[in-house]
Design goal:
single chain; alpha+beta; Heat Shock Protein 90; 2 domains; two-stranded antiparallel ribbon; 10 helices
């Protein structure tokens, strides 16, 4: 017995999902009904030809024959993993061909035992003579029934394996996406912490009180981050709670130098967004724009719904973009772009552009989705 066959048999026995119609309570009666339909056809033909037959015997004989075939075929399906080896056709044929010869024999033995008066014109024949007579008369038909059932089960088996591979592939893709997201989150948190500690360090000699407040605010941000755990998508209101504390930290460092404005549509408060997607954009605005000017800095954060998408923009004043830079570089922005792509595939956008020589805008868009609409854990489709 090959390792593959052993695995398949084990999987089948431990709950491999079967089609509902292959349950014996459905399959066997259904096959019996097919036999009764053949009996009805025979009865109509006999009546048309002017023959008179015992209706009970006719329907009983056809029904019993197909009932036995239903039982035998269901047993073949039940032990299917032990019969079929996908890697070795010869081994499969060695197992199946004997059954193709044995099943007709078993069926005729049971059928002749149940109907000792058939054939009606030869009622005095012994059991074994009637058995040989019936087997010779119906052996080819029995082989056709067997191989029809075999190829039906083979088609069902291939279809099941195909669907299982599709499901396994989808699960692996989701696990891979979640693993990539986890790596990106681990990359982002130290990057944020390092920059925050640098900001605190820069204030230690010039404004100890401000540095102390920033340290408390950093502690709050870390607590929020830890409470989120591994959640990949969160309501926008939770992300904005984080941003408000982060902006308060920056106010300590850039006191009086930056005017900021935050405008979030009320209907977006429950919209799902990638966790910590906005902080790198704001941090980038400070690091590469607002930190380069001494006064009258501007920071505008806007989020609104547009054509079924959540559109978020961050505009900051500064020195504009360096020549040749498109969509930005660095850990923060690259991280956001990568996570958007993992979450939403091609159904998202990221754009970094220069409004004028002193203003830069980052705009991102992704599908609008509410928290209650998420039920599974696939990151690519908005899960945690």
């Amino acid at each position: 017995m090959s390792p593959e066959f052993t695995t398949n048999a084990s999987a089948f026995g431990q709950g491999r999902r079967q089609p509902l119609f292959m349950h014996p309570a459905i399959w066997i009666p259904a096959v019996t009904v097919v036999g009764e339909l053949f009996a009805l056809q025979s009865w109509v033909n006999f009546r048309h030809w002017g023959y008179h037959v015992n209706t009970a015997i006719l329907f009983g004989a056809w029904g019993a024959q197909f009932f036995v075939w239903g039982v035998l075929c269901w047993l073949m399906w039940h032990f299917w993993p032990r019969l079929v080896s996908r890697r070795n056709l010869v081994r499969t044929l060695i197992r199946v061909i004997p059954l193709a010869l044995i099943f007709p024999v078993i069926e005729e033995m049971v059928w002749v035992l149940l109907f000792p008066r058939i054939p009606l014109d030869l009622p005095q024949m012994s059991y074994w003579k009637r058995f040989r007579f019936q087997l010779q008369a119906e052996f080819i038909d029995s082989l056709i029934i067997f191989w029809c059932a075999f190829f039906l089960f083979l088609g069902i088996d291939y279809y099941q394996r195909f669907r299982e591979k599709e499901k396994a592939t989808a699960q692996l893709e989701a696990q891979l996406a979640n693993a990539k997201l986890a790596v990106l989150r681990m990359q982002l948190n130290p990057h944020f912490l390092f920059n925050a500690m640098n900001s605190i360090s820069s204030l230690m000699r010039s404004d100890v009180d401000a540095a102390d407040i920033m340290l408390e605010q950093l502690s709050s941000l870390l607590r929020i981050s830890l409470e989120r755990g591994n959640m990949q998508l969160i309501p926008l209101r939770d992300e904005m709670d984080f941003i408000e504390v982060y902006l308060a930290m920056q106010d300590q460092r850039y006191a009086g130098r930056v005017r900021r404005e935050v405008a979030i549509d009320a209907e977006l408060h429950d919209a799902l967004v990638p966790a910590m997607f906005l902080q790198p954009l704001v941090e980038n605005a400070y690091a590469h724009g607002l930190s380069k000017i001494e006064k009258d800095g501007e920071l505008l954060i806007n989020a609104h719904r547009e054509n079924g998408m959540v559109a978020v923009s961050v505009i900051n004043s500064g020195l504009g973009l360096k020549p040749g830079i498109k969509n930005g570089h660095g850990v923060g922005l690259a991280n956001v772009r990568s996570r958007l792509r993992l979450h939403y595939g091609e159904n998202c956008s990221f754009d970094l552009s220069e409004i004028d020589r002193t203003h830069v805008r980052v705009t991102i868009a992704f599908p609008f989705q509410l928290a209650r609409e998420v039920e599974n854990g696939f990151a690519r489709y908005g899960g945690e």
